[in-house]
Design a protein that fits this description.
The chain is an alpha+beta fold. Among the domains are: about 95-215, Uridine Diphospho-n-acetylenolpyruvylglucosamine Reductase, domain 3; about 215-420, Vanillyl-alcohol Oxidase, Chain A, domain 3 (3-Layer(aba) Sandwich), CATH 3.40.462. The chain has helices at about 5-15, 25, 50-60, 115-120, 140-145, 155, 190-195, 230-240, 255-265, 285-300, 310-325, 325-330, 350-360, 390-405, 430-445; strands at about 20, 40-45, 65-70, 85-90, 95-100, 105-110, 125, 165-170, 175-180, 205-210, 215, 220-225, 250, 275-280, 305-310, 335-340, 370, 375-385. Strand 8 and strand 9 form a beta hairpin. Helix 13 (about 350-360) runs antiparallel to helix 14.
Length: about 475
């Protein structure tokens, strides 16, 4: 609970119009994409790094938690106030500060919507590749905090590959600039990379310098229909083996297909089928060549339909189905456990086949979809939280799936982060010595444990809010 004296000081820092304390006003900031809910005591909307610095200094004196929050679209609970306290909403940090066409960089504030940045740089013939499915709502700051990946990661990499520099406020209130604005830079430890993916536990980001690349000349989208999961997964491996690197290779199993067909009334194939959405970009001659190669490979692997989008509108309809998959799933069951596991591409066929076996074993709907090109599959265990029997089955299925991921030399999270949803399982992947080292890093940044406590792992800190 935040003391009344501290609330008065918070109001003085950001202004009365930029503080929320009523329950009905706090509710929208109590949940995220995980369906969990934790009510904050206060929400504040600072306007600059100076105000955030003063907030954090106050939090250290008064020992209350501070939770940074972007759009609240995260899938691991990273922006939830699990210990109550103050949510620092970054809504007012919403400016694109610079698009430098000579040096191929952009400077943005963390509240900028990812899709808006992409639109602005593309107007100048430039390209910002990270492309999370939530790009129309998620913010750049949230993408950096979680190291978001997205549909185009198979060719272009993830958010960390485009972050050159950061301006941050440390938990103790100091303002720090990390990184460079140049193509190279190796002076000292790479604090920028340390911040990327730290889920708001090490600092609050207030400015981001991003690397841009030239916009590809054109792109083409293909829909490929397979009679089963196994043939689709094997086809992905064959495409990569042929040294073809698509912009995206997205996978949708039959349950996923049914959900988006009914939800959006799209012209998608019926029956027990598996889909691949494949996109190529670059030079037209090379794209046309690779389209022919991919079509031949798909035919060899037993495709029942190969459809090349005739125009931009058809391509957008196909990607609309993919981007609306997650919100369409509750028609199967009201609740879900979302996982974003990654396995080596060579293990993809084995993984998706055994995933289906786990679903049948526990009599659960477990639709899967995602970034097959880099082995990142979004696994969704659908269940009814009000049914204790289904809850128990979902828990058993989750543990089996995560064990399978580790056995296949994969990782339990490719882009959603750990937050609170994967916190109980982090020890399956990170050895104890690694967790202890991370704990010491957290303590060095945040000696009083006030910044986003209760996330990722438990910290061994004296006087910490995490205890």
């Amino acid at each position: 609970m935040i003391p009344k004296s501290a609330l008065s000081k918070l109001t003085h820092i950001v202004g009365e119009k930029n503080i929320l304390i009523k329950t009905e006003d706090l509710l929208p900031y109590s949940h995220d994409g995980t369906q969990h809910q934790f009510m904050p005591d206060v929400v504040a909307f600072p306007k600059d790094a100076g105000e955030i610095s003063r907030i954090l200094q106050l939090a250290n004196r008064e020992r209350f938690p501070v939770v940074p929050r972007g759009a609240g679209s995260g899938m691991s609970g990273g922006a939830l106030a699990v210990r109550g306290g103050l949510v620092v909403a970054m809504d007012r940090f919403n400016r694109i500060l610079l698009i430098d066409e000579d040096n191929l960089i952009a400077k943005v504030e963390p509240g900028v919507i990812t899709g808006h940045l992409q639109e602005e740089v593309e107007k100048r013939g430039l390209f910002y590749p990270p492309d999370p499915a939530s790009l129309d709502v998620s913010t750049i700051g949230g993408n950096v905090a979680e190291c978001a990946g997205g549909l185009r990661a198979v060719k272009y990499g993830v958010t960390r590959d485009y972050v050159l520099a950061l301006k941050v406020v440390l938990p103790t209130g100091e303002i720090l600039t990390t990184g460079v604005q140049t193509a190279k830079g190796v002076v000292g430890y790479d604090l920028t990379r340390l911040m990327v993916g730290s889920e708001g536990t090490l600092a609050i980001i207030t400015e981001i310098t991003l690397r841009l690349i030239p916009k590809p000349a054109m792109k083409k989208t293909m829909l490929v229909v397979f009679p089963n999961i196994l043939s689709a997964a094997r086809c992905v491996s064959m495409i990569i083996k042929q040294k073809i690197v698509p912009t995206a290779i997205e996978f949708m199993d039959s349950l996923s297909v049914e959900c988006v067909r009914d939800q959006l009334n799209l012209d998608l194939p019926k029956g027990d089928v598996t889909l691949l959405l494949i996109e190529l970009d670059g030079d037209q001659v090379l794209i046309d060549r690779d389209v022919r190669k991919i079509e031949a490979l798909c035919q060899k692997m037993g495709t029942v339909e190969f459809r090349l989008a005739k125009n931009k509108g058809e391509a957008e309809d196909l990607w609309k189905a993919r981007r609306n998959l997650s919100p369409s799933l509750p028609q199967l069951r009201p609740h879900k456990i979302s996982q974003d596991a990654v396995v080596p591409r060579s293990c993809l066929a084995d993984f998706v086949t055994r995933l289906s076996d786990i679903g049948r074993k526990h009599d659960l709907h477990i639709p899967s979809f995602g970034h097959a090109g880099d082995g990142n599959i979004h696994v969704n265990i659908m269940f009814n939280r009000d049914d204790k029997y289904e809850v128990a089955k979902a828990d058993k299925a989750l543990k089996e799936i995560l064990k399978l991921v580790i056995d296949l030399k994969g990782t339990i999270s490719g882009e959603h982060g750990v937050g609170i949803s994967k916190k109980p399982y982090i020890g399956m992947e990170i050895p104890q010595i690694g967790l202890e080292l991370m704990s010491r890093i957290k303590s060095a940044f945040d000696p009083n444990g006030i910044l986003n406590p209760g996330k990722i792992f438990d910290v061994n800190q004296r006087n910490s809010l995490l205890q």
